[in-house]
Amino acid sequence: MIIRGKVVSGVGKGAYFVEKYEHLFEYAVGFKPFYGTLNIIVDNVPDLKNPTKITPGGKFKPIKCYAAELKIKGENIDVFVIRPEATRHPENILEIIAPMCIKETYNVKDGDEAECSLE
Predict the structure, then answer these.
(1) Counting beta carbons within 10 angstroms of the beta carbon of residue 111, is it exposed (0 to 12), middle (13 to 18) or buried (19 or more)?
(2) Domain residues for 41?
(3) Helix, strand, coil content of the chain in percent (nearest 5)
(4) Where are the alpha helices (DSSP H) in the chain?
């Protein structure tokens, strides 16, 4: 499945939650994620299937993770699309975690086009 969209700024909470879930993400996705997410707004909300589920318990809600390849600025990056059960984002915003800050590493700006190929 290929999803296309544009990079947008988030609500500023991604770093906090990625840090809180860090050990669970590392176990579930196989890398230590950068403390933050890359957000992509899409026209068509995908019907994603077969997630890796993270269920932390306590006050934190479950998250579904989907392996993907992000194509942006001529680069192909292995990432995970995450779909938190509790989020302030509308459904047409995809949040992406990666082992690095994609915006800084690849000079990505709001409005840049992005494509995610989900496995």
Answers:
(1) exposed
(2) 2-118
(3) 15, 40, 45
(4) 14-29, 102-105
Give the number of other CB atoms < 10 A from CB of residue 58: 6
Higher pLDDT, 14 or 53: 53
pTM confidence score:
0.90
Whole-number Å distance between alpha carbons of 12 and 32 = 20
What's residue 11's pLDDT? 74
Instruction: Dump pLDDT digits (tens) for 53-109.
Output: 988 877 888 889 999 999 999 999 999 999 888 777 778 899 999 999 999 999 999
Q: What residue type is 48 in one-letter code?
A: L
d(CA 113, CA 8): 10
Chain CA centroid to CA 42, Å: 13
Q: How many structural domains compose the chain? A: 1
